Amino acid sequence: MPMSEQILADKIENVMLECADETDNPESSRKNFSSKLAAAIINEVKKMTIMATAPNGPVTVTSIE
What superkingdom heads the lineage (predicted)? Predict the structure, then answer.
């Protein structure tokens, strides 16, 4: 499945909205934001299917861990 720019953008926006309400601890907010953003990106990357061509023919990567 190809990675969806719109799905990833929506997830990033949700993380931003979720973290925007945090006003009491800027350090904690930054760490929370970066952790949730990284998780959203990794989640979308893991859904990808990568197709490549090798000397002996096509190669399909079906799992990214």
Answer: Bacteria
CB 43 within 8 A of CB 49: no
User: Does 2 or 46 have the greater pLDDT score?
Assistant: 46
15 contacts 25 by C-beta, under 8 angstroms: no
* Contact in structure between 23 and 63 (CB atoms under 8 Å): no
The per-residue pLDDT for range 4-61, each reduced to its tens digit, is: 788 889 989 998 888 888 778 888 888 988 999 999 888 888 887 777 778 888 787 7
As given in the structure block, the two tokens for residue 34 are 């970066």
Spell out the domain ranges in the chain.
5-51
Q: Which two tokens stand for residue 22?
A: 């945090």
SS3 content of the chain, % helix, strand, coil (to 5): 55, 15, 30
